[in-house]
Write a structure and sequence with these properties.
Blueprint lengths: L2 E10 L2 E10 L5 E5 L9 E2 L4 E3 L1 E6 L20 H12 L4 H18 L1 E8 L15 H13 L2 E8 L21 H15 L5 E3 L2 E2 L7 H14 L5 E4 L4 H11 L3 H8 L6 E4 L6 H10 L2 E4 L1 H6 L7 H6 L3 E4 L9 H16 L13 H17 L14 E4 L12 H9 L6 E6 L2 E4 L7 H15 L2
Parallel strand pairs: 1-4, 6-7, 7-8, 8-9, 8-10, 11-12, 12-13, 13-14
Antiparallel strand pairs: 1-2, 2-3, 5-15, 15-16, 16-17
Helix pairs in contact: 2-3, 2-14, 4-5, 11-12, 12-13
The structure holds zinc ion.
């Protein structure tokens, strides 16, 4: 049976519509959209502006538990690499149940913040000694079950990791939980597709970790295997987060990372390049041309001191992008997009940089761009309020002072730049309410469990 919803104002595919009725099928798909309607004709009246929900295109769920434990000085060359060492010690203790509890907590936080799906770049596969669990997919099940517990849609991207550095350097002690030989990785994919391929709101793709952790040959072999299961499944990779990574890639291959990837792999719309931070003009052009998505994780990149993505150049070339909360130092699509623009303002000493004459609103340009890129990178029919798309949406809180007297694109501008508290009130994923009045039905239990896990881990 279908349900119909009335919104006074809604961001539709071709712009803002007024007095909108949207009908949603029992399977959670949008069946029809009509504007200039009477609210008396709908079964439910939405209390605020309606906008599509955001896809979170990059998450390492377990890292939520680590956030806040590494914000101290003492090492003059503190960087991503020193952070990574502390993080490795931290995760050395996690078991599958703890991983599920942490993921459940962060997925509830995501839903409340306006993310309706998550692309989980999942690399914690084995037990702390590196031995496989009885079911090699056990840790993958932990994150998928956490998504199912909370109602967020998930694109699971099991990570393919073999080496600690370019030229097949042997993996280090802290990396034993991540590793797969090619045939083991193939078996993992086989098992995951067998479990989840027919499930609603679950999509499986792959994540070759980085060019330092797998070779281009490994990547192509994994893509061939993936194609056998799903020729449209997403492919994500960490590409150029750190200058040292670029230097190492040049030293070993003679090429920069994006250049090396494009020369050796067929990068197209299925790909998402996470942290394409250190790219030159040529690489930005190639990335934009390829139709792949640049996966930007601004708050994590800021926290780790990674560097700035050259957004103005990339936007000029109509490159696709989306946002992710990555290490979960911050879980909010609004904050990611705000920092994307603010970083450029600080560098260029100008205002309103990431927009153009067609859409002068920075908020609309950023939100709509991230919706499109996020949906593509997740391999999910989402990101638009349009017929045939999943009913993944947010109702904004009209009592949030940032929303007062705002119309159309000003709503998105205020939501991103002027909200001092979360402007998201209700959240629907595939036709089901997961957040109502800012509340998730599992949140109390989740908080209690999460507190228990943290107390145990830091002992
Ligand atoms: Zn990452």
């Amino acid at each position: 049976m279908s349900t119909s919803y009335f919104a006074k104002i809604a961001l539709l595919e071709d712009g803002w519509g007024s007095d909108v009725i949207i009908t949603v099928s029992a399977l959670g798909e949008i069946e029809s959209i009509t504007t200039d309607c009477s609210q008396a004709d709908a079964s439910e009246i939405l209390s605020g502006p309606l906008i599509p929900g955001m896809a979170n295109l990059h998450s390492h769920a377990f890292q939520r538990a680590f956030a806040g434990f590494s914000e101290y000085g003492g090492n003059s060359s503190d960087s991503f690499w020193t952070w990574r060492n502390i993080m490795y010690q931290f995760v050395d203790k996690l078991d599958p149940e703890q991983a599920r509890i942490i993921a459940r907590q962060v997925y509830i936080e995501m839903l409340k913040a306006g993310y309706t799906s998550v692309a989980e770049f999942h690399y914690l596969h084995h037990n702390p000694t590196g031995a496989h669990y009885d079911d090699p997919a056990e840790m993958s099940h932990s994150v998928v079950h956490a998504a199912m517990d909370t109602g967020i849609a998930i694109t699971l991207l099991p990570v393919y990791y073999r080496y600690s550095g370019f030229n097949e350097q042997q993996a280090a002690a802290g990396q034993q939980r991540f590793l797969h030989q090619p045939e083991e990785y193939h078996r993992l994919l086989d098992s995951l597709f067998a479990f989840y391929r027919s499930k609603t709101d679950i999509r499986i793709g792959i994540a070759p970790h980085s060019l330092r952790a797998v070779s281009a040959m490994d990547i192509n072999a994994a893509v061939d295997i993936l194609d056998g299961y799903d020729p449209e499944a997403p492919i994500h990779i960490h590409i150029a987060e750190q200058q040292q990574e670029v230097d190492d890639c040049r030293n070993h291959t003679g090429q920069r990372p994006v250049q090396h990837l494009f020369e050796h792999c067929d990068v197209d719309h299925r790909w998402c390049l996470i942290h394409a931070t250190h790219i030159n003009d040529q690489e930005a052009w190639e990335l934009a041309e390829s139709g792949a998505v640049a996966g930007l994780c601004l708050t994590t990149e800021a926290n780790l001191g990674d560097g700035f993505f050259p957004a103005p150049l990339y936007f000029e070339r109509k490159g696709k992008f989306g946002v992710g909360s990555d290490s979960h130092i911050c879980v909010s699509p609004m904050n990611e997009l705000r920092l994307l623009e603010y970083g450029q303002r600080l560098v260029h000493q100008q205002r309103a940089i990431l927009c153009d004459q067609h859409i002068p609103s920075v908020g609309r340009t950023l939100y709509q761009g991230a919706l499109e890129g996020g949906a593509q990178a997740s391999g999910r029919n989402t990101g638009k309020l349009a017929v045939g798309y999943q009913a993944d949406w947010l109702v904004l809180d009209p009592s949030n002072p940032a929303m007062f007297s705002k119309t159309n694109d000003q709503i998105l501008d205020a939501m991103i730049f002027a909200s001092n508290s979360n402007p998201v009130k209700d959240v629907m994923v595939s036709g089901k309410w997961q957040i109502k009045d800012g509340f998730h039905p599992m949140q109390e239990q989740s908080l209690q469990d999460y507190q228990g896990v943290l107390a145990k881990i830091i002992q």
